[in-house]
Design goal:
Elements (H helix, E strand, L loop, with lengths): L1 H49 L3 H14 L4 H13 L3 H14 L4 H13 L3 H14 L4 H13 L3 H14 L4 H11 L4 E12 L5 E11 L4 E12 L2 E13 L4 E10 L8 E12 L7 E13 L2 E13 L5 E13 L5 E15 L2 E9 L15 E13 L2 E12 L4 E12 L1
Antiparallel strand pairs: 1-2, 1-14, 2-3, 3-4, 4-5, 5-6, 6-7, 7-8, 8-9, 9-10, 10-11, 11-12, 12-13, 13-14
Length: 424
Amino acid sequence: MRVSENGFIRQPAKRSLRTVIAVLVLIGSVHLLAAQTADDWQSQVRKDVENQYIDAALAIVDQRLADAPEDLEAHGWRGRLLSWKGRWSEGEAEYKLVLGKVPNDTEMLTGLSDVLLWEKKYTEALQTLDQAREISASDSEILSRRARVLALLGRTPEARLEYRQTLLFDMQNTDARAGLEGLAENTKHELRVGEDVDLLNYADAGQTQGVSLSSRWNQRWSTDFGVNTYQRFGQDAVKFLASTALRLTARDSFTIGSAVANSQGVVPTNEAFFEYGHGVRIDNRWVKGLESSYQQHWFWYQGAHVLALNTSQIVYLPHEWTWSLNLTGARTGFLGTPVDWTPSGWTKLGFPLKRRITGNLLFGMGSEDFAQIDQIGRFSAHTLGGGLHYQFAARQDINGYAARQDRTGGLIDTSFGLSYGIRF
């Protein structure tokens, strides 16, 4: 009986031990599977973000929140993605939801500050960054963001000090260096002088000298004044020009201007123009922004008049590249001849070469600019050219270009020019 009792007692013990082990293995597997699932969705979101598939990443995050509504990592990701899509108020709400439970998360605080900055809530953005700075006083990303907001609030000395503080912790921080240079260049005026030369295979060389003063009086108003002197086809001409621009909104501007010249036959004696411009920020893998403008320009020559309707587009590409497209339809009229419309256009690709140096390549078809009398009329042409811009000091730069225009009848115009600008 003793043996049988012992055997009877040991058997349930073995079964209980197996059961406990099985339960523990099952629990561990569930936790491991849950962790792997969490890692899987986050890694896929990161991969989609790297490939600029923001909508796909947002769909994954929404599905994660449907399965786990309290997942703060998912709420944080949703805040980022919504903000990148321009749905700022929704992104702000997600960030604040997370910070309500983990108020010392500096990553969420900096993300929220970015959204508030885009919403132009500068004071709230600064308060958020102040909170992040108290938590991590040496974080260069927080310091750099704080300096940017201080600059936007007009607190320039504090912004400059914060940028310098950023560079103490991170000497390679390009945002801080650029911000510090931008604050150093807090100028109102730009004076530019230059000269252009046209080498013609059918006449003597033509020359143009120019001086201009551009002034930005405040955030909305700016003016341009200039004087050009011309030597072409044995004649001398002097032209005075002026324009003023009004920034209607953060993205819209309107410009109006005119010019007058002494009586001669090589440049317009009178000009008038207006231009409307609109800019758009685009969060895209290939395009970062777009500036569009429409201009009407009237030219009156001795014996001729021109109305030029012009539209231009500047596309901002990644890595500081730009692509410009300019199209013009000109209504020309000469004494004794019927009025006629002629098209022209050009395209230009701009690109960085080295720090402070940018270049561009240009191609034009029928690319009259109507500045001189020999650049209007019934002829076709194509133009190839390029240029360089060198910012050799914080407030000084040099622009140079060269171009060749081949016209019908074997006429060739090879032009080049150089200008120097200083800001003060």
